[in-house]
Structure formats: C-alpha cells, structure tokens
Amino acid sequence: MATGNNLAAEEGLSLVARVRKRTVVAWGLWDWGSAAYNAVIISFVFGPYLTTGVAKNLPEGSLSGPTWLGISTGIAGLAIALLAPVTGQRADAGGRRRRSLAIWTGLVIASTFGLYFVKQDYHYLWLGLALFGIGSVFSEFAGVSYNAMLPQVSTPRTIGAVSGFGWSMGYFGGIVLLLICYVGFIHPDMGWFGATAEGGLKYRMVAVFAGLWFLVFAIPVLVAVPEIAPGPRSQRVGFFASYRVLWHHLRSLFRADRNAVFFLVASALYRDGLAAVFSFGAILAVSVYGLNPGSVLIFGVAANVVAALGALTAGFIEDRVGPKPIILVSLGGLVTTALALLFLHGPTMFWIFGLILCLWVGPAQSSSRTFLARLAPVGREGEMFGLYATTGRAVSFLAPSLFAVFSGVFDSDRLGIIGIALVLLAGAVALSLVKPPARMQPVPLDAAS
C-alpha cells in the first residue's frame, strides 16, 4: 500500500511539474511577443523611420526629429512615474492582475497598429509621436503586471531560471522578428503584400506585422496563468484614494524593510545606465567605430543572441548563488568593457567588445527582476514593480545627461562612454550596500492587521 501511495505521489508531482512548465512557457511567450514593440518599433525599425524619415523635411527652425521624440518619451516617462505604482496596486488589490495585463497589452497593440497611418511626411510626425508616447506608457504598465506574475509561475528555488528564461525569450523573439521584417519588408524593393518605400509603406507594414506578432504570442499567458485572489477589502478603493493607500504602503515598507527601498534606488541608477547602453550603442557604432547602418542591424541581431544566452545561463547560476552576485559581476563586466571601448578603434573591435558588453546586459536585467520579486511582499508584487518602474523613470535623465556632458565638453562622442560607465559604477556601489533578498517572499506588511 505504501508503495502504491508513493507511486501516486510521484505521478502527482510529475503532473504538477509538467503543468508548471507549460505555464512558464506560456508566460515566457509574452516576452517573446513583446519584442515586437521593444526591438522593432522602438529600437531598430520604426523609431529610426519616424525620426529620420517622417521628420526629414521639418520646416526650417524646427526642433529635430530625435529631439521631438525625446520630448514625447519624456512626457510618457512622467505619466509612467505618476501612474505605474497605482495601476499595480489597484490590480493587486482587486485581483485583476491578468485582466490588467490583457488590457494594457491590447492598448499597446492598438497603438502599434495605429502607426500604419504615419506616412513619410512631417505632417504625420505628431501622430507618430503621440502613438509612440501612448504605446510607451501602456507598454510599461503591461510590464508591471507581467513582472508581478513571476512569483506565480516559479518557486523560490527556480525563480532565477524562470526570469532568465523569460528575458531570453524576449531577446530571441526580437532576433526572429527582426530577421523576418528585414527579409520580408525592409531589404527587398517590393516586400510582402506589395510594400514599397513610397510613403514609408514598408515601415508602416512592419508596424502592422509587429502588432499581429505581439497579439498572437500574448494570448497564452492570459489562458495559462490563473488570476490572483483579491486583496483585503480595505485596499479596494477608488482611483485617487489609491494614492493614499500607496503612501501608507510606502511608509510601512520603509519602516519594515528599508532594504527594499534601498534596492529600488540602487537599481534605478544602474538600470538607467543599462538603458543608455541600448540608446547610444547604435549611435556610437556608426559615429565612432565606423559601422554602416546595415551592419548595425545585423549587430543588433547578434547582440540579442549574446544577451539572451547570458540571461539564460545566469538565471540557472542565480538560483544557486542569489541575484546580487550576478548583478554585481555583470555591472563590473559592463564598466570594464565600456572603459576598454574608450581606447579601441574600428568595426572589428566594436564587434568583439560590443558583444562582450551585451553579454553582461541580459543577466543584470533578469536578476534585477528576480531580486525585486524576492523582496516583494506576497500579494503586493504589482505595486512593487510599479514602484520599480517609477524609480527607474525618476533618474532616467542621468546617464543621457552625463553622456551629453562628457561628449559635449570634450567634443567627442567616444568620451560620452565615461558618463554611462559612471552611472553603472554608481549603481554597483549602491547595490553593494543592499542586503541580498531572502529565498522566500515576505508576508504582506499588513498581514497582522
């Protein structure tokens, strides 16, 4: 009889493991699909089309396309900073995390489809900027709900590997989609569905294709991951009252676990440096190291491969050593490689050391997510990831500003690297003072009340 019970228990555990694996894959497919917005729309295809194609013939005396895009994303960043924690808190309290993910993802996809109407004429620039700003806000909100699901689809022993898997899926999704868009729309004179360069049609068709891609791969997580239970009735309040609840939680968090607050500050610093690596990498590749635009796109594909492998590998190591060592080693690698690039010249050296740089980016991003997931009180993950988004936006000016200071004062784009390296170093120093998170998530701060 005991043997029969043991067999039944083993079969039950095996079934649970298989179900959890399917859930993890479904969760990771959202990251795969979101690459449509991050890699194609923002970074490599539609963003450059908007700032150099649509804005090409702006009236004399007008601000440049990149400057207008900076204003648009700056306004979007302010909206995210003000609203992200409350949207996360309300989703947690109302038991609507999955529904929130569905709504925000749908709005990102709708804004992406809207880019089809942005023709290659500066009169359409304002429509493009508005859609970019709106899409950025909704994308960040969706990311808050998605990241908050991490403890739902993992265990304390596997959270690092699961986070690394999701992050690598995002990189690999970007690789595949970029290659499809390049072969199907960008490279040929007449792409799929008769898309040509006239009126920017090939880029507008890429936006439609990217929206469909995100739509298809966003569905599994909404089916496979169950909705969370509602929080205490006292937390389910109106929109403006949510700020009062948020303020109460912040004070409780600071009194009970200042370590979490310190991590939010430290991670805001180095995450700004990581963002700057992506923002200025393509610019430096062309202006300093001599890559042509076509080579930059191919480098982007290779960089995603390397970053994905780094995130995936580090995720398994993290479950043994914890997220803090992974982040510190990655930041050290980033600073060292960035400083090496100061003294190197030519496309070959950029390819070698640029890919080494990307190797450290994925682990730093993935382990930061698990660090916070381990710190977040149970049932408050959405709120904590909302604060994560807010603190990141609060210092998002720092690395770009220091890049501009060093490149402007010394009249050298190359020396702008020093500004980015300083922000990464400051984040590493701040993180070194933060205690590593426990293996288990803390209970809600108000559980006793």
UniProtKB/TrEMBL annotation:
Major facilitator superfamily (MFS) profile domain: residues covered: 1-439
First-listed, main subcellular location of the protein, grouped into a coarse class: membrane
Domain of life: Bacteria
Lipid bilayer topology: Multi-pass membrane protein
Presence of keyword Transport: yes
Transmembrane segments: 24-47, 67-88, 100-118, 124-146, 158-185, 205-225, 261-290, 296-317, 326-344, 350-372, 384-409, 415-434
Record flagged with keyword Chloroplast: no
Pfam family, one: ATG22
Localisation: Cell membrane
Keywords: Membrane, Transmembrane, Transmembrane helix, Transport
Protein's name according to its UniProt entry: UMF1 family MFS transporter
Organism: Microlunatus panaciterrae
Lineage: Bacteria, Bacillati, Actinomycetota, Actinomycetes, Propionibacteriales
